Amino acid sequence: MKALVYTQPGELQLQERPQPPLQPGEVVLQIEAVGICGSDMHAWHGHDPRRQPGLVLGHEFAGRIVESAAPGFAAGTRWTGNPLITCGTCSYCVQGRNNLCANRSMVGMTRPGAYAEYMSIPAASLVAIPPAMPALTAALTEPAATAWHALNLSMRALVRPLHECSVLVIGGGAIGMFAALLLRRLGARRLCVTETNERRRASIERHVGCESADPRSAPPAEASHDFVIDAVGSKATRQDAFRAIRPGGVIMHVGLQDWASEIDMRKLTLAEITLLGTYTYTTADLRATVVALDDGLFGDLAWVEQRTLAEGPQAFVDLDRGASAAAKIVLVP
User: Fold this and answer.
1) Measured over all CA atoms, what is the biggest interatomic distance in the chain, rounded to whole angstroms?
2) Are strands 55-56 and 60-68 parallel, antiparallel or unpaired?
3) Spatial contact of 255 and 234, defined as CB atoms under 8 Å apart
4) Count of beta carbons in the 10 Å neighbourhood of residue 294
5) Domains in the chain: ranges and CATH
6) Mean pLDDT in residue range 158-166
7) What is the pLDDT of residues 4-34, one digit of tens each?
8) pTM higher than 0.85, yes or no?
9) Side-chain half-sphere exposure of 169, counting CA atoms within 13 A
């Protein structure tokens, strides 16, 4: 089979790899579509020690079962799935918070991912998709579920209803775009997305229908927003988030661009700010997101770009250089 392999920082190669063997309790999927995630970009830059050269990346997938060693998972059926391989027995899993599983591993990190014609995965990780759902749409389940999960957590912490809040989303990548689209659907009327890429700002204004700004020339004003989502997670964006948040407001931290940076703990305390972190999604979030995508809750998805798997190396370069307006590029083997 053909697979896109991370060979060294800044390089992907299309190689011939053996088709994955079928293991008990697992299935082999023929990949129909797979998205490029910010974490894949992070690995491509050589900034993720957990993802080593020689690895097939990719964890935002949709596919069709071609082989199954799991009862109830028939060949020919179509699925997306949870790329987190969880144990199902730890305290977090039994609470329904399997994104925090103490024993988790991950597709595209600890085992080969979906930048390939075929991929194996435990059947327990699969999430059903409607038979007629376009593969590109289904492959967006994972990033959309990340935004879904983050907003669900945030809504519990907000003191006032969302439609009363001034909301700032930092970062116009896929998570920021999905968050902004969902915020609109949930009633956010005063919404701004900051993004450094001019092409993406135009896409945000066109597809979300909200204000956008370049944070380098127009940083958010002091104490200007009740709710801030940092979908980047750099030192600069964390500073923007703390500058923008009003007393009593909520900051949701989603992005993980920088491993660590200082935050203003004095302001956090004296202004009674709620700072939340979120990691991925639960399986319940993924299932709910499939329904939301199928119902058109996130709009027409015209801002998503599709390319072939062979065009994957150039897609990474284009994303790195800001040469694409698309907040999400999906590869089709």
Assistant:
1) 58
2) unpaired
3) yes
4) 16
5) 2-140+301-332 (3.90.180.10), 144-277 (3.40.50.720)
6) 96
7) 999 999 999 999 999 999 999 999 999 999 9
8) yes
9) 32
Of 199, 249, 200, nearest to 220 by C-alpha is 249
Helix (H) / strand (E) element for 60: namely strand 60-68
Name which of 142, 128, 131, 148 is nearest 82 in CA terms: 142
pLDDT tens profile 258-305:
877 788 899 999 999 999 999 999 999 999 999 999 999 999 999 999
Token readout for 137 is 């749409």
C-alpha closest to that of 233 among 148, 115, 141, 150: 150
User: Distance between CA atoms of 320 and 328, rounded to whole angstroms?
Assistant: 12
- The H or E element spanning position 168 is strand 166-170
61, β-bridge pairs: 34
Residue among 143, 150, 173 nearest 58 (CA)? 143
Single-letter code of the amino acid located at 294: D
Summary mean pLDDT of the chain: 96
pLDDT at 260: 76
Nearest to 298 by CA among 327, 276, 270: 327
